[in-house]
Amino acid sequence: MPDEVHLTVRVVGYESHGRARRGVVSAALGEATDADARVCVYPHRNSAFRLPANPDAPILMIGPGTGVAPFRSFVAEREALGARGRNWLFFGDRTLRSDFLYLTEWLDWRKRGVLQRLDVAFSRDGAGKTYVQHRIRERGAEVHAWLRDGAHVYVCGDAQRMAADVETALLDVIREHGALGMEAAQEFLLDLQRDRRYQKDVY
Amino acid sequence: MDATRKNDLSRPLDELHSNERLKHRSRFLRGTLADSLIEPASASIAPDDALLTKFFGVYQQDDRDVREERRLSRLEPYYQFMVRVRLPGGVCTPAQWLALDAQARATANAALRLTTRQTFQFHGVLKHDLPRHLQGIAAAGLDTIAACGDDNRNVICTSNPLLSRAHAEATAAAARLSKHLMPRTAAYRELLLQQSSPEPPPENEEPLYGPTYLPRKFKIAIAVPPANDIDVYAHDLGFIAIVENGAIVGYDVLVGGGMGMTHKVPATFPRLGTPAGFCNVDDLIEVAEHTMCIQRDFGDRRDRGHARFKYTIEDRGVEWFKDELARRRGKALEPARPFVFETNGDRYGWHRGENGRWHFTLLIQNGRVADMPQRPLMTALREIARRHTGVFALTTNQNLTIAGVAETAKTGIEALLRAYGIDTQASALERNAMACVALPTCGLAMAESERYLPSLVARLEELARETGIADVPITIRMSGCPNGCSRPFLAEIGLVGKAPGKYNLYIAGSPRGERLNVLYRENIGEAHILNALRPLFERFGKERTEGEPFGDFVLRIDEVAPMLEGRNFQRVTTTPGPA
After folding, report:
1. DSSP symbol at B153
2. CB B227 within 8 A of CB B341
3. CA angle, B241 as apex, B239 and B246 as ends, to 5°?
């Protein structure tokens, strides 16, 4: 799909002055559902959110909700280039039944061995609310092992809560499995950031 | 090598159907189910596990109405599970009814379905709710073992044990048979109920079945004449109770009945059970076990379309079966005894049993117990269950008998039904109509059935009124595919799905259930179904003799030739239906 642009849009809904309102742009896009609808877009380049130059480097992709969008192109790109680095996706949303975006593509990639690891968290399916940060902590030993193996970490999605919660989870993992204190763990993460191995695209 | 045994259990596994290898390596049905159930990224279980869970009455399906929409949305099919209870003889207590009702509202789609094999079916159970759902059923003293799968299925029996001593004996026999032939694997408890085993399972967990179970499903039915409500000819093994002085003295034995076929494959066909003799009442279990094991050993394990017991009997002959059974038992069956069947329908409304208690049989349209607008049937039955002191008896015509009601409690039940708007009046056609589930959940359906039959019956009622036969009962059965869960090949009017909106039309079955019907029109839609039946209804209205059933009438006027042998069922040529 090198000549295509795919948009992943959630229609924004909120209440204001007692009235239900919808985001102007997202609602317009959400309603443009018939095959002939035309929408003018231009790609906005983000040089701070890039796949590792080394195709053998493993990547950890943390993209709940619409944050999963760039990771489709990441995995498609790595597959097209025959990159040998391992790929791990953390995804979360409300329900498995209707909110697992691009589910069939992820399962297909996993089945074909392109996506080595897939961890999901659905906040409304179980008894307790689980989010991607819970999965990161549960998989702490393996996450840390991937970091030791030179993994690049990407976080995409909600800036208000998710990005901070995920960062706290990553720090916990580095502290616990790297046997580091808080400051050393923060330093570790900053080093990753300086090496462009920890990149965020949050909004 | 014995040339007649080239497809059975005596052959090496790698020559047999892949399902045989799957069963064999599954460690008595465990497979990878433990992993499948906790896999969080999909609402499905692995395809192999989906074959294995059938042995536990758990059947993976998806909502076919939304399949395409979800595919375009890059979502997987809307996976959900059908769960079927093992309920020998179709009997449950009011407490069990209440438990199943509550479970349906907690972890299924808030409906219960009474099946054509006399049990409850839940739809819409999600994977993460499966253990909880089955635990709830277990807490009510019930299980779902062998409700599907290559094993002995729910044992059905002429309905209502409280009707007479013979009915009670037959129902008790159904329960004993079901228990005796039940798979023993601890996998059900370990994986689905998720309860620890008190002791490690024995090395051979299935002394009767072995690691590959049966070649295909195996169905047993017991009839208490003159009722043939269970369609005793339609099952792998049929028993007809012979009653003397009010007690069952033994059973006539029928072997090799079955409904399913594949359209346009003449080697597949529905078949009526063949009489094989009579056994004493005490020999019932022994005869059933040996018969099932004969099928285990000789049934076709290479071609699943040829694996039912009916083909073993068809290919080898009933004399071979009688010899083999006699060899295994050390004695032969006695000559069959006479019996008379009057109907394969249900007796609706109030009727009185041997001990003076009352029984009320309620028409449940297509067996669907749910709250519908203006007709909160599920709520009404829940309220009845809260007060009822007898039992509930399910019928294989998908109806329900509130059984064992004291004279003084009758008005209370009537009042409850009225209060919830449950109309107990139904037309002659409605009372004898039956449909399988089909779309949207059944993966085999080629056409609508449950969702469509009521509107077609309404059209046929208009036709019946116009032709002056509105009061004549006619069995009408529809199935969404030729597997025939609603036993359409015995109906006076059978409709079997071929494609969306298109059905094969069969006529000339019998209201006593002892005759196959005959293909009359192929692959036609509603307008052509009505056009084909109109002239027959008109003649039937004018020319029928007193009490003559429709199915008998069309044979008498030579509209079709009688179907004497199942093997000829798909060899009839008809006028092709308009495209």
Report:
1. -
2. yes
3. 165
What distance lies between CA A34 and its chain's CA centroid? 28
Decide if B63 touches A, using CB distance below 8 A: no
Please, what is the average pLDDT of chain B? 96
CA distance B111 to chain A (A): 20
Q: Which of A1, A88, A100 has the highest number of chain B CBs within 10 A, making it the mutation to test binding with B?
A: A100
Identify the contact set of chain A against chain B, taking CB-CB distances under 8 A: 96-98, 100-107, 110, 118-120, 122, 125-126
Least trusted range by pLDDT, from A37-46, A69-78, B30-39:
A37-46
- For tokens 């995995």, the residue is A75
pLDDT at A42: 83
Separation between Cα atoms, residue B545 and residue B543, nearest integer Å: 6
- pLDDT tens digits for B376-404? 999 999 999 999 999 999 999 999 999 99
pLDDT over threshold 50, residue B579: no
Stretch B138-162: mean pLDDT: 98
Asked if the model's pLDDT at residue B435 lies above 70, the reply is: yes
Is-contact B516 B569, C-beta < 8 A? yes
Measuring CA to CA, which residue among B145, B121, B117 is closest to residue B53?
A: B145
Going from the C-alpha of A143 to that of each of A53, A184, B451, the distances in angstroms are 21, 18, 51
C-alpha torsion angle, residues B286, B291, B203, B185 (rounded to 10): -90
**Measured distance CA(B311)–CA(B23) in Å, rounded:** 22
Looking at CA atoms only, how far is residue B97 from chain A in angstroms?
Answer: 27
pLDDT confidence bin for A44, thresholds 50/70/90: confident
Are the C-beta atoms of residues B403 and B370 closer than 8 Å to each other?
no
The yes-or-no answer on residue B217 being catalytic is yes
Helix axes B284-298, B318-329, angle to 10 degrees: 120
Beta strand segments in B135-246, E? 156-157, 220-223, 237-244
Q: Could you give the ipTM of this predicted complex?
A: 0.88
Check pLDDT > 70 for residue B578: no
A88/A69 Cα distance (integer angstroms): 15
Neighbours of B194 (CB within 10 A): 14
pLDDT value at B68 more than 80: yes
Q: Torsions phi, psi of A31, nearest 5? A: -85, -15
Q: Which of A28-32, A189-193, B316-320, B497-501 has the lowest mean pLDDT?
A: A28-32
**A171 contacts: CB under 8 Å, gap ≥ 6:** A182, A185, A186, A189
Summarize pLDDT for A106-147 with one digit per residue, the tens.
Answer: 999 999 999 999 999 999 987 789 999 999 999 999 999 999
Per-residue pLDDT, averaged over B472-484, amounts to 97
In whole angstroms, give the CA distance from residue B440 to residue B61: 9
Q: Hey, are the CB atoms on A98 and B42 less than 8 Å from each other?
A: no
Cα–Cα distance, B64 to B70 (Å, whole number):
10
Entry pTM = 0.94
Element (H, E) at A186: helix A182-194
Q: Which residues contact B238 (CB under 8 A, 6 or more apart)?
A: B220, B221, B222, B223, B232, B253, B254, B255, B257, B273
Q: Do B58 and B127 meet the contact criterion of CB atoms below 8 Å apart?
A: no
Q: Looking at CA atoms only, how far is residue A191 from chain B in angstroms?
A: 33
| pLDDT for the residue B575 | 59
Check CB contact under 8 Å for A97 and B78: yes
